[in-house]
Design a protein that fits this description.
By secondary structure, the chain is α/β, with parallel strands linked by helices. The protein has one domain: Aldolase class I (TIM Barrel, Alpha-Beta Barrel), CATH 3.20.20.70. Helix content is 38%, strand content 16%. It is built from ten helices and eight strands. Strands 1-2-3-4-5-6-7-8 form an eight-stranded parallel β-barrel, surrounded by five helices. β1, α1 and β2 form a beta-alpha-beta unit. The longest helix is centred in the C-terminal third of the chain and has 18 residues. The protein is globular, with a radius of gyration of 17 Å. The relative contact order is 0.16. It binds 1,3-dihydroxyacetonephosphate. The site of 1,3-dihydroxyacetonephosphate (13P) has 14 residues, from β8. It holds the Pfam family TIM. This is Triosephosphate isomerase. Homodimer. Its EC number is 5.3.1.1. Keywords: Cytoplasm, Gluconeogenesis, Glycolysis, Isomerase.
């Protein structure tokens, strides 16, 4: 059975109405079902604190970014090895905000994936089309191109894919669960061809996921979890998303 995965991507935010200690404390009280991962992705400076707070719990942490080299003259950057030393197991790569604002190309994303896999961390690879691309009927082409370029040369299938249609991120506009399911089937069949017939690579959905819609997404057979932005800034809302 594919694991269920819920990721709280805080982006460049901290929880709005509670301290980080309260937030983690609240989630720690929650009994995490078997074969379920609950992953918190805070900004870099909060990783050591979150790593300390989640000790002796089933919660896990992710970084939101990484550099493709192990060390060197890269002002402002953080390596996979450094993240690993702080107990990070997952790294978000290729988020559309980084593609858009930091000009991350598929080639850069591929280099980041390689170092993350090499360091034995698990990448959470984000892919997704823009509204204009969907309108032009290019969703399939964009998704397959992003997958192929990002995963070029990656033989180890220990990755997580997050389908995040750009038009649904932070907009309150949800993709329809059946629309998402269609894209997930496309991703799954590509992954099955590339890696393994017994496909256990989790595919998450992200884009205005919240407690009121998480159930309808999670009912789809090929949606294995959610990558949550805004609604993950409240421990109560994030818990509700997982519980429903
Ligand atoms: P929202 O949940 O705020 O739409 O953000 C989604 C996202 O980008 C998660 O990585």
């Amino acid at each position: 059975m594919t694991a269920k995965i819920y990721v709280a991507n805080w982006k460049m935010n901290v929880p709005a109405r509670e301290s980080i200690e309260q937030y983690i404390g609240h989630l720690k009280k929650f009994r995490v079902p078997a074969n379920t991962h609950i992953i918190i992705a805070p900004p870099f400076p909060y990783l050591p604190l979150v790593a300390r707070l989640i000790k002796k719990s089933r919660l896990e942490i992710a970084a939101q970014n990484v550099h493709w080299e192990t060390e060197g003259t890269f002002t402002g950057e953080v390596s996979a090895k450094m993240l690993q030393r702080f107990g990070v197991h997952f790294v978000i790569i290729g988020h559309s905000e980084r593609r858009r604002d930091f000009y991350e190309t598929d080639a850069i994303i591929n280099r980041k994936l390689r170092i993350v896999v090499h360091t034995r961390l698990t990448p959470i690879l984000c892919i997704g089309e823009t509204a204009a691309q969907r309108k032009r009927g290019e969703t399939r082409k964009i998704i397959l191109t992003q997958l192929r370029r990002a995963l070029q040369g990656i033989r180890n299938p220990r990755v997580i894919i997050a389908y995040e249609p750009v038009w649904a991120i932070g907009t309150g506009i949800n993709a329809q669960p059946t629309q998402v399911q269609q894209v997930h089937v496309l991703i799954r069949s590509w992954l099955t061809r590339k890696y393994t017939k017994k496909n256990t690579i989790p595919i998450l959905y992200g884009g205005s996921a919240a407690a009121h819609n998480s159930h309808s997404f999670m009912q789809q057979p090929d949606i294995d979890g959610l990558l949550v932005g805004g609604a993950s800034l409240s421990s109560q809302q994030f818990r509700n998303i997982i519980q429903t």
